[in-house]
Amino acid sequence: MSAADTSDATDATETDKADARPVARTPLLRRLAGRPELGAVVGAAAVFVFFSIAADAFLQWSSFSTVLYASSTIGIMAVPVALLMIGGEFDLSTGVLVTSSALISSMFSYQMTANVWVGAGVSLLVTLAIGFFNGYLLVRTNLPSFIITLGTFLILQGCNLGFTKLISETVSTKTIADMEGFPSARQVFASHLTIGDVELQITVVWWFALIALATWILLRTRAGNWIFAVGGAKEAARAVGVPVNGTKIGLYMGVALAAWISGQHLLFKYDTVQSGEGVGNELLYIIAAVIGGCLLTGGYGSAVGAAVGAFIFGMTNKGIVYAQWGADWFKFFLGAMLLLATLLNWWVRKRAEESA
Amino acid sequence: MTTSGTTTTSGTPLIALRDIGKRYGNVKALGGVTLDVHAGQITCVLGDNGAGKSTLIKIVAGLHQHDEGAFAVEGEETRLGSPREALDRGIATVYQDLAVVPLMPVWRNFFLGSEIRKGRGPFARLDVSAMRETTHRELLRMGIDLRDVDQPIGTLSGGQRQCVAIARAVHFGAKVLVLDEPTAALGVKQSGVVLKYVAAARDAGLGVVLITHNPHHAYLVGDRFVLLKRGTMAGSHAKDEIALDDLTRQMAGGSELEQLTHELAR
Fold first, then answer.
1. A-B contacts (CB, under 8 Å)
2. Can you give the CATH number for the domain in which A169 is found?
3. Residue B74 distance to chain A (closest CA, Å)
4. Please, what are the averages of pLDDT over each run of 10 residues along chain B (266 residues)?
5. Closest partner residue to B113 among A1, A220, A242, by Cβ?
6. Which residues on B lie below 8 Å from A9 (Cβ)?
7. Which ranges carry the ABC transporter domain (chain B) (predicted)?
8. Looking at the domain assignment, is residue A9 inside a domain?
9. At A90, is the secondary structure helix, strand, or coil?
10. N or C end of chain B: which has fewer CB within 10 A?
């Protein structure tokens, strides 16, 4: 801020001498407390310390790589789901949409004997169309997104099972590993890099790229401003000329894009796809976003927070295995984390508001 | 019903409504409203709840389209399709309760829908520092000194929020400022502050439409008063044609109020 501006500011505040500081920034501690990610970061640190003590194997590099991979499979979806929630909407169809995307890709390539990239391309178009359908129906009807996407969730689940049975006559797709383009597609969606002693799954790269992209969009683009606005106060946003409908449809298509990436990963990692997979994952994505500080009512949250939420999921999921407790306890931990992180967020925000 | 007075101001009005009407299905919400908005003047629209004020505001703001009559912006017959279109024609509307997004920082609210960007194509990004500084400067001009334009606008007082919305409209070059009940939820002191900014906007050359059910506030700043009653226009008076007492009585329903006085008398 220039000197001219500063003197300008002090002139105009003559009536309010006590407040002569122009554009002073809020103290660092308060600003940190005001971040939506705070609860998630504190929670992640606690979970990390906990499993470091409880499980010896947890602190090895190879375990870290496994944890990151588990985190990324949820995180790739949690990030756009968080954006959608900031935009004030839910999507319950995300879990099965990932499976649909993989199934379409696989079955199209197999039935048409086409290059697997052609199948992946068709799958991308169809998946984006489903995302568009969710968003379009929402903005045209103004029904709650909970109901609309619950509908698409069930429809997609039925289609996944029904079409797979109809076409493959089993509950899974045929192998496409010997088809043209498979090696290169696997390279893109399901390979791993080796950095020193650490093996890094490519999904982690996709995940980080999505976090960076989503954060950029949210904080530094016009679209990001619109996302916060349509989630925070839809009518106010509309009144100042924000394209509310376009923003919401765009958010659903963003979720669809991530579902496509996740689906292609599933397909090219395991070669065949089970038609019943994915049910229940939609809640994991939402949980990660909420742990990461997204408000259920919209208008507040962050992509980084959702990513940290997904990381908590990964640590808990694998940490329980390393501690040899049996996976039965996983849901318990996840539920406890959800409550604790949300309570912490609530408490911090309340404190911040009181002292403001 | 008086229609004189429109000729006292020369030049083409910024907005001219002629016998504007609106129906929602079979329900007639508004009919026969005629009013002009001139630069540097405040036109007050007064009416009780359900008189058709919000329908009128929605037509002028581009949220709804009129079914009857003519709507001219700077002499050109128009039918506004969206709030964006209204803004592009220089009509900015500040709503009573939905003026801002409470959880968003002040500067993001200030520039919402008209963000400053730098860079090209996919790298076009918000010019955050410019927007922060502009927000601070523009608010200071309105006499609001915020230490931190990054604070959520929900932490400001109701009056300050209204002022931010007014400052925003002025900054973005609005020619017509439509204010929906700006003082309805405010205390006496804060109402005064808001009315000062309404007057400031008028002095800056804007045509102001002030919608209110408070004749005292209207009379303080208004140049012309349009009275609405049950969806129709019940009167239109220039300030020199009507006294505050008259305005208050007409606004309150005239004979109805007298009857009420009689009934309540002890």
1. 110
2. 1.10.3470
3. 21
4. 43 86 85 89 86 86 87 87 85 78 89 87 86 89 80 82 83 87 80 85 88 86 88 83 80 69 78
5. A242
6. 136, 140, 145
7. 15-255
8. no
9. coil
10. C
